[in-house]
Amino acid sequence: MSKLEGKVAVVTGASKGIGAGIAKALAREGAAVVVNYASSKAGADAVVAAIVSAGGRAVAVQGDVTKAPEARGVIEAAVKQFGRIDVLVNNSGIYEFAALEDVTEDHYRRLFDVNVLGLLLTTQAAAKHLGEGGSIVNISSAITHVHTPTAAAYAGTKGAVNAISGVLANELAPRKIRVNVVSPGFVVTEGTHTAGVVGSDMEAGLVAQTPLGRAGQPDDIAGVVAFLASDDARWLTGEVITASGGIR
C-alpha cells in the first residue's frame, strides 16, 4: 500500500516549482491533493492534469493565503471535496532579495505577509479539521544558516517559519498533530529563474559550496516532505530537516 493511501493533503503555492513537485509526490503516494494557487490557474490546472493522468486524485483551489477568509476557503474546499484533511504543506512563499539600502516597508511586508502570516492563517484553518495523526510540513530555507548577502528580509521570514513551527509542534502535540520543517538549499525552480539566480555567479557559488556538487531539484525536496507526511515519520515533530545537498 502507498504511504499516504486514503489521506487528503493540501499544498499551498503548488502551481509551480517545489510546491508542484510536492503535490505530485504526495499523489504518487496515494493522497488526494488540493493544489492551491494564488494567481496561476493555468499552472495549477497543469499540476492537477499530471496527477490525474497518472491515476491520482487532485483539484485546483484558488486562494490568497494572506487573507483569512481565503485561507479558510482553501481548507474548507478540501473538506468539501474529499471529506477530510490529514496533511497540510505550507509551501506558499515569495523569494525576493534586496540589499540593505534597498529594503522598503513594502518589500518587508510583502515577504512576511506571504511567508509567515499565510502559514499562520492556513494552519489556523487546518487545525480545526486535522485529527490524530495529522501532519503539517512547513517549507523554510537553508538561507537561515547560509546567511546570503541581500537576503535579510527573506531570511528573516524563514527564521520565523522555523521558530513558529517549533511552537506549533508543542502546541498541537496534545492532539497528536505533528509539525515539522523542510529547509531546502538552492533548488532550480521558476522562482529562482525569475530571480536571476539560475545561471548566475550566485548559483555557481552555491553549487561550489554544496558537497554533493549540484543544484537541487523539486523532487529532491518532495520526497522528504512525503516522508514527513506519512506514518513513517510518526515519531518526528518539531524537527527541521535541511535538504540541501550538504550545504552548511
Automatic annotation (TrEMBL):
The keyword Hydrolase does not apply. Gene3D superfamilies: NAD(P)-binding Rossmann-like Domain. This is 3-oxoacyl-[acyl-carrier-protein] reductase FabG. Keywords: Oxidoreductase. GO terms for molecular function: oxidoreductase activity. The keyword Oxidoreductase applies. Belongs to the short-chain dehydrogenases/reductases (SDR) family. InterPro entries: NAD(P)-bd_dom_sf (IPR036291), Sc_DH/Rdtase_CS (IPR020904), SDR_fam (IPR002347).
